[in-house]
């Protein structure tokens, strides 16, 4: 078996990171890891417990005793709390909003980072998020940064929410996403940025198949260069 890479996919919401991540993992036979789902899991738990994410001490206590079960493999990424799968609940607007707040808390980022390191220690991983190639796995062999225009991203997010109910209209979704972009890009701790050495992919006018083919070509190129000792 050849060297098993760590592949990172970063970018803002609605650019197709999850779709690409799952499909790359299936094609490569790698484990798929969704870092955003981990932040959402913390947010879900905080909401379920009625915890204020701004309460530093209460949040720290919660994380110390919070050990969800995670199934991360070629088939996808699932999260279980107390034996209950909560994965479908992680994409609701409420959890999405709270996860953006959770991601600004240092203790949450440490908790997520520790979980990510455990899940990826043997390589053979496609990991997607917002700071993986820049902060969590700066030495990853292949990095991608996906982007798309705001209207396209908001429309995609609306489609994700159509079965959950409670989603704002398109204008509201665009406003929420723009505000989150601003928070992610300007936060002091691990801001959203294009990682050094990352392949930039604008998915606005590309189909999922086209994005997959482009990224697979970059991965093949990286593997060929590694095999040649370049």
Describe how the helices and strands are arranged.
Blueprint: E1 6-10, H1 17-28, E2 31-34, H2 35-48, H3 56-64, E3 69-73, E4 76-81, E5 84-85, H4 93-102, H5 106-120, E6 125-129, H6 132-136, E7 142-147, H7 150-161, H8 170-186, E8 199-202, H9 208-227
Parallel strand pairs: 1-6, 1-7, 2-6, 7-8
Antiparallel strand pairs: 3-4, 4-5
CATH homologous superfamily (4th level) name: P-loop containing nucleotide triphosphate hydrolases
Structural class: alpha/beta
Roughly how many Å is the radius of gyration?
17 Å
Shape: globular
CATH topology title: Rossmann fold
Mean pLDDT: 91
What separation lies between the terminal Cα atoms?
20 Å
- List the strand order in the largest sheet: 2-6-1-7-8
Uncertain residue segments = none
Structural domains: how many = 1
**CATH class annotation:** Alpha Beta
**Elements, N to C (H/E):** EHEHHEEEHHEHEHHEH
Instruction: Tell me what portion of residues adopts beta-strand conformation.
Output: 15-25%
CATH architectural group: 3-Layer(aba) Sandwich
Question: Which key phrases capture this entry?
Answer:
five-stranded parallel beta sheet, 230 residues, Rossmann fold, 9 helices
Q: What would you say this structure looks like, in words?
A:
The chain has a single domain, classed as P-loop containing nucleotide triphosphate hydrolases (Rossmann fold, 3-Layer(aba) Sandwich), CATH 3.40.50.300. It contains 9 helices and 8 strands. The chain has helices at residues 17-28, 35-48, 56-64, 93-102, 106-120, 132-136, 150-161, 170-186, 208-227; strands spanning 6-10, 31-34, 69-73, 76-81, 84-85, 125-129, 142-147, 199-202. The strands form 2 sheets. The protein has a 5-stranded parallel beta sheet with strand order 2-6-1-7-8, sandwiched between helices. A 3-stranded antiparallel beta sheet has the order 3-4-5, covered by helices on one side. β4 and β5 form a beta hairpin. α2 packs across α4 (93-102) and α2 crosses α5. The mean pLDDT is 91.
């Amino acid at each position: 078996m050849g060297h098993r890479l760590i592949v990172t996919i970063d970018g803002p919401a609605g650019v197709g990171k999850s779709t690409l991540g799952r499909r790359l993992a299936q094609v490569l036979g790698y484990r798929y890891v969704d870092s955003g789902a981990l932040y959402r899991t913390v947010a879900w738990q905080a909401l379920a417990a009625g915890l204020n994410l701004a309460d530093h001490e209460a949040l720290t206590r919660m994380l110390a005793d919070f050990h969800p079960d995670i199934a991360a493999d070629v088939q996808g990424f699932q999260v279980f709390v107390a034996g209950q799968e909560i994965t479908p609940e992680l994409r609701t607007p409420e959890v999405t909003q709270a996860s953006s707040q959770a991601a600004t808390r240092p203790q949450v980022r440490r908790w997520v980072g520790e979980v990510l390191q455990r899940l990826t220690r043997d390589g053979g991983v496609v990991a997607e998020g917002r700071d993986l190639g820049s902060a969590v796995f700066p030495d990853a062999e292949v990095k991608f940064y996906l982007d798309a225009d705001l209207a396209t991203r908001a429309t995609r997010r609306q489609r994700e929410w159509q079965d959950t109910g409670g989603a704002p209209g398109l204008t509201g979704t665009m406003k929420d996403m723009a505000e989150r972009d601003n928070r992610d890009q300007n936060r002091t701790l691990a801001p959203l940025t294009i990682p050094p050495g990352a392949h930039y992919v604008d998915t606005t006018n590309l189909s999922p198949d086209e994005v997959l083919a482009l990224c697979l070509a970059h991965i093949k190129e990286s593997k060929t260069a590694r095999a040649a000792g370049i």
